[in-house]
Amino acid sequence: MKIRRELWFGLTFMALIVIGAATVLLSAETITNGHLGLLMLSLVVVAIMLGFPTAFTLMGMGMLFTFMAYDRDWHRTLDLMVQSAYKTMANDVLIAVPLFVFMGYLVERANLIESLFKSLHLALARLPGALAVATLVTCTIFATATGIVGAVVTLMGLLALPAMLRGGYSVPLAAGAITAGGCLGILIPPSVLLIVYGATAGVSVVQLYAGAFFPGVMLAGLYILYVILIAKLKPQWAPPLSAADRVVPLPPMSQRLAESPTAHALVGLLKGRRNAEVPFSHVLRQLTIVALPAIVFALLAGFSYRAVTTVEAEARYDIEEIGAARGSSSSGASSGGLAEPPAEGGLQEPPSEGGLQEPPSDGGLQEPPSGEAASPPPAASDASTLAPPPGAQPSAATSVAPAAAAAAEAPTYRAAPTWWIATFAVFGAITALFYLFLSFARLEIFKMLLASFFPLMLLILSVLGSIVLGLATPTEAAAMGALGGMLLAAAYRRLNLAVLKESVFLTAKTSAMVCWLFVGSAIFSAAFALLGGQALVEEWVLSMNLTKVQFLVLSQVIIFLLGWPLEWTEIIVIFMPIFIPLLDNFGVDPLFFGLLVAMNLQTAFLSPPVAMAAFYLKGVSPPHVTLNQIFLGMLPFMGIQVLAIVLLYIWPQIGLWLPQLLYK
């Protein structure tokens, strides 16, 4: 019987793990509980590679070794299981997981991806490798909106792969673009991976979302740059679109307005004589669509200009610091405020004679005499205390209070900053170029983008913007995103009972998997710590005397290698609880480490033999597309991922600038 290469690789990897664990145990003079913890870790990895469910493997191994760590006390073992399950149920961060997943399934079923891909490949038709670039952009947007890698890769395999193969594209390049682009959903927020890492490592999900945005955009940009360079250097791998493929059919009304598809749209719409054959309502609708970019630019410029140039005056109150003198007289006496009591007549010790004494033994308590003791104190002293001294002027603070209140109400203005001028100069130039080269064909492409691209971008930006700007928590934003997904599906007439039922079922299935993974991870981590495995690993790492750079390189190499046999969920819930306690010893920010891990875990979907993206694509690809061709196409994109990790480490502000700007 012939054994496939992937099976050989898996068996070899498991054999290496078993041999390594046996070597460590046999070479130890005394087998301690820490060695049992490492044995548990090895057995968990082997069991997962054999195909056992990850969550229940973690729970089973954790319960077994916890029973051993507690000296075979099954009461405490069961208590640990219950506490771990309750801790997961009480974690409010995980509420965002089913809501984001539900939004993704609804957006997927709105069937936007076909029109999105078509409009993007027509809009980018003049770029080298236009179909592959449009595939990457479509995958990036759709993966960001859904976060479901399998769905994006499968849909793009059905839609983009046949189009690229008909266009003469290389099979490895086409397969690599689809699989790499589809995996971006686990990095670019809103990402379930970041929620799971945040809940595991105790890092703010809001800061993770803010930090992962620019690294995700950078990685997508590197993919696009690679495809354009390959199309330039090897045009036979990515031939340009033919003239027939770039033709945009015009609707009948637009054909009456346009002498040709390349005629200027704005001029054609404003002509009086030729518009006589076209209803005025149609012309008005087209002009409204044409005016949208200018309206959006004007609104953004106006509101942002007011925000960056207005300086709100600080509120001033008629309250002075305690002890501050409002004025001074020639005698140096304070005219108001709290002051030290005078030296003479202030609080003093009672005299030794006539002070507080025991009452006389005879007579006991008596009424005071009706004379001097009953007379009230003179009111003149109080009046002299409360009245202002003669000749004192009104307080300066009192006289300027109305002026201060008026100054507090009136904001001041400053010049617009340079970055604002540069940003809107670029946007203004883009808007001007849009109108300068707006033909009727490009107007149709713009209308297609309005129907597919902009609704998704609006949904993504509203969800991310509300989280990053602090307007909503991730859970609240996820709820609004789920509502937005329902509205989007309803707007495209795809929302019905069957779609809703299927989306709810898939959401419950995915959420249950994530939550049981957390329960298993909590039990496994507790057992690993009880056995002393964490202390053993920490002692071993610290004994190597690594620098911060060496530790980061070692940890990322281990995660990269673990991505070959394991998926990202298993790496996060099993190995992150081992790495996170080590970060303080090397001065590593858990937020920055999480960004490196999220970037690195892109390889978990692209690295054979457990490259799930490759199997998703193979399931919907034509028979002549082999698995080896798909693997070959993914390797350059894995190299780009390694390059992106290096760039993020050299310039950490790529990921840390936005969180520091918003939450410093």
UniProtKB/TrEMBL annotation:
Compartment(s) of residence: Cell inner membrane
Extent of Low complexity compositional bias: 325-337, 368-386
Region described as Disordered: spans on this chain: 325-398
GO cellular component, as recorded: plasma membrane
InterPro entries: DctM, TRAP_DctM
An example molecular function term from Gene Ontology annotations: transmembrane transporter activity
Major subcellular location class: membrane
Membrane recorded as keyword: yes
Pfam family, one: DctM
Topology relative to the membrane: Multi-pass membrane protein
Alphabetical UniProt keywords: Cell inner membrane, Cell membrane, Membrane, Transmembrane, Transmembrane helix, Transport
Official protein name in the record: TRAP C4-dicarboxylate transport system permease DctM subunit
Organism: Variovorax paradoxus (strain EPS)
